[in-house]
Design goal:
Strand content: under 5%
Oligomer: single chain
Number of helices: 7
Structural class: mainly alpha
Shape: flat
Largest sheet: none
Order of helices and strands: HHHHHHH
Mean pLDDT: 77
Amino acid sequence: MLDFKLIAPLSPNVISTLFIVIVLSVIFIITGLKIKKLNPAETPKGFLLVCISLVEFFNNFIKEYLPGKRLKFFGPYLFTIIVFLALANTAALLGFMPPLSNIGVAMSFTVMTFIMIKIAEFRFQGIKNKLSGLVGPVKPMAPLMIPINLIGEVSTPFSMGLRLFVNLMSGVVISTMVFTLIGALNSLVAQISLYAFTSVLLHLVFDIFFGLIQAFVFFMLSTVNLSMASES
C-alpha cells in the first residue's frame, strides 16, 4: 500500500540547499552591514575589498546585456543565482549531496526564472505588447499561434532547470557506478588505491569543472533571456 505522509524527513538535497542558503544569508547580511558602515574616503581592505571587487566585476560583465536601470533591477537576482549555483554544484567537495541532483530543487529554478522573465516582460514591454506578441502579426493565425507561443513561454525556463538536474544527477549516477565497481574488487589494496585516484578525478571533473560550467551556463541563459524579455 502507498504510504502518504504529511510531514516527511527532508532529503539530503534539500538539507544541502538549506545549509547553503543559511550560510550565504549570514555572509551577505554581515557583509552588507560592514559596507554600510564603511567610510567612503577610506580604501576597503581584506574581505570587503574582495567582495566589492567581485561585485564590480560582475556589474561590468553583465551591463552590456542589462544596462541602466535593468542592471539595478535584475543584478541582485543574477548575482545571487551565480553564487548559489557555484556553491551548490561544488557541495560534494564538502561531503554534501549536490542540491541540484534533486529534480524538485532544480525545477524550483525553473519557477524562479519563469517568474523573473514574466516580470521583465510586463515591466519593460507592457501587458499590451506582450499579449500582442502572443497573438502574432497575422491576426487570422491567432488560434494557431497562441498555443505555440504559450508552449514556447514555458519551454525555455523548463529546459534550463532540466539541464541543471540532468547534468548534476548524471555526475552522481556515474560516481556511484564507479565506486560500486571498485567495491566489488577482491583486493583491498586495489580498492584503496582506486578509491583514492577516482575520488580525486571524479571530484575534479564533475564537482569543479562541470559544476562550475553548469552554474555559468544557467547564469548566462538567465541573463540573456532577461535581456531579451526586458527590451521595450
